[in-house]
Design goal:
With 216 residues, this protein is α/β, with parallel strands linked by helices. It has helices at residues 15-24, 47-54, 74-80, 95-104, 150-164, 181-187, 196-199, 204-214, and strands at residues 2-5, 29-35, 60-66, 84-88, 108-113, 131-135, 169-173, 191-194. The protein has eight helices and eight strands, in the order βαβαβαβαββαβαβαα. Strand 6 (131-135), helix 5 and strand 7 (169-173) form a beta-alpha-beta unit. The structure holds D-xylitol-5-phosphate and zinc ion (ZN). Zinc ion binds at residues 6, 31, 33, 64, 173, 193. This is Ribulose-phosphate 3-epimerase.
Length: 216
Amino acid sequence: MILSPSMLSSDFANMETELKALEAAGLKWVHLDVMDGLFVPNITFGPPIIKAMRAKSGLFFDCHLMINDPGRYIGDFVDAGADLICVHAEACTHLERVCAQIAEAGAKPAVALNPHTPPEAIRYLLPQLFMVLVMSVNPGFGGQKFIPFCLDKVRDLKSMITAAGADTLIQIDGGVTLDNARELTEAGVDVLVSGSAFFKYPPYGERHKAFQDACE
Ligand code: DX5
Ligand code: ZN
């Protein structure tokens, strides 16, 4: 299990300290939520902030773009230091092209699916996807409640990936807690994103371990 803490719930005035605390706590990934106020109702940050974070951190930058028509900005996010770029299926008219663009630019391509979007949307893309993100809340804000049907969706997606002989990772994002972490990883989740259930409970090393223990 990989835990990818979502910086959306971190202290934005002290991002350098937060990033360093994550590394010191043994985390390898960090989840960066980019929002444009159009695809989702909220606005966060973009490439310049990610670039500033990159200068302070060696973590794997897992960038979740909640923006319309993300193909316009792939080069900017890769130049800023994104290791993985995850775009929403619902935000791309030509999703295959955007995924190819991400790979060509040198980052790992991933696709996010809103809660209501069936896994079928990415079936034929699986061989070229490093990861699929299953949104388990409607994107836009931290601290929301997990939508229960997303567990079945993870199981469906896992069967689809196995049947395709692909090695695509499954990530879940939204309402992940110590209480549901285990059933999620048992259902096939490889990467857990956690914002509020992680950052609200320092020290991060202990919280990281609590998530790992919960999944055993
Ligand atoms: C929500 C974001 C999430 C958010 C999760 O749209 O994509 O990454 O930070 O926050 P929690 O873990 O609090 O639900
Ligand atoms: Zn996210």
